[in-house]
Structures are given as structure tokens and as C-alpha cells.
Amino acid sequence: MLPIGSFFFGKLEDQYGYRRFIILGSVLHVLSVFLSAWSTKIWHFFITQGLMLGMSNGILFPILCALPAQWFRRRKAFATGIVIAGSSFGGGMNALIIRALLSHMSLRGVYLVQSGVEVVILGISFVLMKEREYPQRAEAEAPFNVEKQQISPDAKIEGSEDVESPSVERVQPEVLPRTKWLNSSLFRDSVFWSLEISLTIAVFGHLVPFLFLPLFIRSKLPGISSSLCTLPITIANISAFIGRIIVGLTADNFGPANTLFISLFISGITQVIIWNLIGNFGANESSTYGMIMFFAILYGFWGGCFVSLLTPVGAQLFGSDQPANLSGLLVISGFPGYFAGPTLAGTILSCSNQNWHIVSLYAGGVQICGAVIFLWARFKRMPRIFVRF
Asked: Looking at the domain assignment, is residue 386 inside a domain?
């Protein structure tokens, strides 16, 4: 639901302003967690944690990408990286906190506590967020077209008694233009298709380590405890928090497009080589678990960086007049991968008789393929190699 919501609401947010959609997304987010406390059947959770929570994230995500781009020019990628990194830090800490709470209260109590905490956090965020008004929206909402003012060429300096009153031509109030969901010029640009196809393919391998790593650990270390089995996922989220900030700073210095290619390529290489080699040399359990933690740290650092680079790369390639709309259009490219990527990995694992080598080659291979496809967009806009872009 996040890609669909981002595409649908991103355009509306650019046209009508962010604050009303921040309220809508926040209310829907809190309701999804609160109603989960009263869910008793699987289909209840599909509605609350799937439909409602996914749609609320789809409403809020384009805003989180677009707001830093409004206020920062030189450090746009760094600012966006810090904002998006919050989701990684929150995901890692939330897993630890919920695990601790479940030892002292019921699942319903945990959901109620979580919804109360989110009311406070989202309320503070709403107060602190401030949107920067764009000239095109201000003109569209203005009651009169001020550009129609015509000042007499004989008028003297302002403040003089002889200044003539300007002749102002009043026109009918302008209304907001009808929402145009798709920019046809983008679909005629091969750079857009290079970026879109690159993200579509790369996302197929993005979630595979995060979802399959506990199962992989169980297969390599059957006697491991549940807490140690899920710890690498938490570590990967914390590493992603650090990675998105550092990679954002790197993008400001070396260029967003260059950094996006590097992040996708290293993410793929990490899976193809490091994940593929874990436990293949007769190592003991401690060494195997250490390699798993090393893989979680390295993949967590690079694996999710492309998400925080979408807005800076989109602004560099296509301009930054509608950041939320562009972010939504790029996010929806990941819909097939988010929907089918992990399912395809599970099918490969089952059909290959639990062969993890094929799974890692699949997940890393599609990310490398996505990085290579993006090179068309990179060199179409900037043919030179060793240049900040």
C-alpha cells in the first residue's frame, strides 16, 4: 500500500499543501495501531496493519522526502538522509522495546502503549514541521493575478508626491488547476525509464535479507535462541540509520546519481559474495554467527540507502518543482518488487531444496542489474565519468 499511496497522494500534497495530509496520515497511522489491539482474527490484521498502516505510510512518505528538499539546497541529500534514517532507527528500537514489553503485558496492552506513544510523537512532529510555500502554488491560490499590474512609465520614485496610481487590471479569481496525475513529458524521456526500470528490478532483492535472514540463521545454527536469531535484523536497521546519514552526506559531495549507483551495486555485491559464503568453509558456530552479523551490518548500511536518495536524484535529473509528486512516482516503481520479490525468493528456496546460494545470487543479482540499468540515466544526463553528479 505504501507505493500506491505515495503515487496517489504525492501529487495532491504538492498541489494542496502538506499539513492537511500530515494530519490525515497521522490519524490513520494511530488508528491502525489502536485498532490492532482489538483485532482477534488474521483478516483483522490485514486491514489494520496492512491496508490502514500501509496507506498512512504512503501518505506520509512523500512528505518526509519532500520537506527537507524545500529547505536545503547544498545539503539536500544529507538532510533527506537524516529524516529517512529515522525510520531505520525507529524500526530497530521498536523491535527491542516491543519484545521487552511483551514480557510484562499482553499484546493488546503493547498495542495500546504504542498507539499512545505515537500520538505524542506525531503531535510533536506536526507542530515542528513547516512547509515552504512555492511560488506556483501561491499564484494559483491568489485572488487576483498580480502580474497584470501595469505601472505608468512616467511614475517617479516611490514616496514622491507626484507618483501616479498604478493602473491595475482586475481579473476573475483563479482556481487551482485540475490535478494532472501523469506528466507526459517524463514518459517520453529515456532517462526516466532508465531510473524507473532500475528501481523496479533492484527492489526485488531489497527486502529478501531482512525477511529471510532469521530463517537462514535457523538453517545454519539450529540450536540458536530466538533473541539471537532476530538480533541481526535489529542490527541491520541500526546500521541502515547510520548508512542513510553518511550516504546522504556522500551524495552531497560526490553527487546523488553517482551515490545511487554505488549503493545499489554494493548492496548486490554484498549479497552475492558475503551472504553466499557464510558457513561454507566448515567454520564453527561462533564464526558463522559473526559472519552473519558482519553481513547484517554491511547490507543494512548500503541496502536501504536508495530510498533516501530518491528525492535528490529525482531533483537532479528532472527538477525539484514538485518533490512529493516525483517521490511518489519513483516509489511506485518498487511496487512489483515489494509485492513479489520476497515471494519469488521463497519459491526459489523451496524449489531448490533449501539452496541458499541460489537465493543470495537472485537477490544480489537483481540489485546489480538495477545498478547497471541506471547507468543509462547517469551518462545520458552527464557523459563525463569523474565528475560530481
From this structure: no
- For residue 110 the three cell numbers come to 503493547
DSSP string, 164-209: PPPEE---PPP-PPPP----HHHHT-HHHHHHHHHHHHHGGGTSHH
CB proximity list for 219: less than 8 A, separation 6 or greater:
354, 356
Give yes or no for a contact between 131 and 13, defined as CB atoms under 8 angstroms apart.
no
**Stated pTM of the model:** 0.76
* pLDDT > 50? residue 157: no
Phi, psi of 125 (to 5 degrees): -60, -40
Domain-embedded: residue 108: yes
Q: Is residue 232 part of a domain?
A: yes
- DSSP string spanning 95-121? HHHHHHHHTTS-HHHHHHHHHHHHHHH
d(CA 327, CA 3): 10
Q: How far is CA 352 from CA 346, 347, 355, 358, in A?
A: 10, 8, 5, 8
DSSP string covering 314-331: HHHHH-SSSHHHHHHHHH
- Separation of CA 113 from chain center: 26
Question: Contact at 8 Å (CB) between 201 and 370?
Answer: yes
Query: How much of the chain exceeds pLDDT 90, in percent?
Result: 23
- Helix (H) / strand (E) element for 88: namely helix 76-102
User: Running DSSP on this structure, what letter comes out for residue 32?
Assistant: H
131 Cβ contact list (under 8 Å, min separation 6): 17, 18, 19, 67, 70
The residue range of the domain holding 229 is: 2-130+184-381
Stronger pLDDT, 62 or 184, i.e. the higher one: 62
Query: Based on the structure, what is the number of domains in the chain?
Result: 1
Q: Mention every residue, 6+ apart, whose C-beta is less than 8 A from residue 297.
A: 235, 236, 239
